[in-house]
Amino acid sequence: KSCQKPVDKYIEYDPVIILINAILCKAQAYRHIIFNTKINIHGKLCVFCLLCEAYLRWLQLQDSSQNIDPDDLIRYAKEWDFYRMFGIASLEQTSFLLGIFTTLWWMTPEMLKTKSDFVLLLKALLLSSYGKLLLIPAVIWEHDYTPLCLAFIKVFVLISNSQAIRVTLNLNRLLPWLAILIGLILENGVVCLFQKMGWDV
């Protein structure tokens, strides 16, 4: 009231500008999206990102690349390896999030007091994983630099996750990265476990 200006400048901005600023990982854009919008696609976005990841892993399996007809829908429906890859991707995502939540709860218990705090952070993390949608174009336009593109996508998603944690809990830069590192260690532990069981991951 004293300055006669909106606290959140993005309220007056076009959604395209907000999206561009979110892609640039600007904290104010993340704050606007997390706190001042009523986006309710967290679950759908999470499932779609997991499907993208499962599809990428499924394509990398040797058995899946033997059939050269990509329009064979019956073969896709019967391809159990895809569903297995979806389940593995889901477990890895769960362990990554569990690592983040455990670290943050242990380091800053005052920030995560109520169930709504956990839910808000979960929604922010799921929304900030939108970069995984880039996996599909990276696979469709396959070229010699595809592994490098996939590495860049992973880094982008981790930076987005870090910004989401930082904005949601109002933390400095170090603690979100520590939580993400623990989450990655837990996720890689799940990967190693599946590899020891003889599963292709």
Descriptive notes:
The protein is mostly helical and 201 residues long. It folds into two domains: 38 residues, no CATH class; 157 residues, no CATH class. Helix content is 69%, strand content 0%. Helix 8 packs across helix 9. The mean pLDDT is 83.
Distance between the termini: 55 Å
Give the total of domains.
2
Which assembly state applies to the chains in this document?
single chain
Number of helices: 9
- What is the total tally of β strands? 0
Weakly predicted, low-confidence segments:
none
Average pLDDT works out at: 83
Largest sheet geometry: none
GO cellular component, one term: Golgi apparatus
Pfam families: Arv1
InterPro entries: Arv1 (IPR007290)
Function: Mediator of sterol homeostasis involved in sterol uptake, trafficking and distribution into membranes.
Features:
single chain, transmembrane, 201 residues, Protein ARV, globular, mainly alpha, 2 domains, endoplasmic reticulum
Summarize the structure.
The chain is mostly helical.
Layout of SSEs?
Blueprint: H1 15-23, H2 27-36, H3 42-60, H4 73-78, H5 80-107, H6 115-127, H7 135-140, H8 146-169, H9 174-196
Helix pairs in contact: 1-2, 2-8, 3-5, 3-6, 5-9, 6-8, 8-9
